[in-house]
């Protein structure tokens, strides 16, 4: 069981992981808004009941996210890429009845030199990583 975060660093870490799956969760940004406010410099850290509800709802959405499906080679694939300062993540998916379903997840930690790349280079690196995998 994942306890609620007790610091800005904890909130940032949780949201970093949760944001990767935002495309699988309806109204993600709206639900996460109280937690995102905690990351603003001018906002005093106060993990109140609103934040606790948002945390609980996001946690529930993450564990009930769509299950992995088998690929249908006759349908188009979608590749979603995400790069942070510490790792690259890619999801291969397909739409079934307009709903995006994951087929394969893959991630990779960045090495020390890669961690110093600019945001643009991180985004390009994750695209290259996706092409190498798929």
UniProtKB/TrEMBL annotation:
| Pfam families given in the database record | RT_RNaseH_2
| SUPFAM superfamilies for this protein | DNA/RNA polymerases
Q: Where is the Reverse transcriptase/retrotransposon-derived protein RNase H-like domain?
A: 48-132
Family matches, as InterPro entries: DNA/RNA_pol_sf, Rev_trsase/Diguanyl_cyclase, RT_RNaseH_2
The protein depicted here goes by the name: Reverse transcriptase/retrotransposon-derived protein RNase H-like domain-containing protein
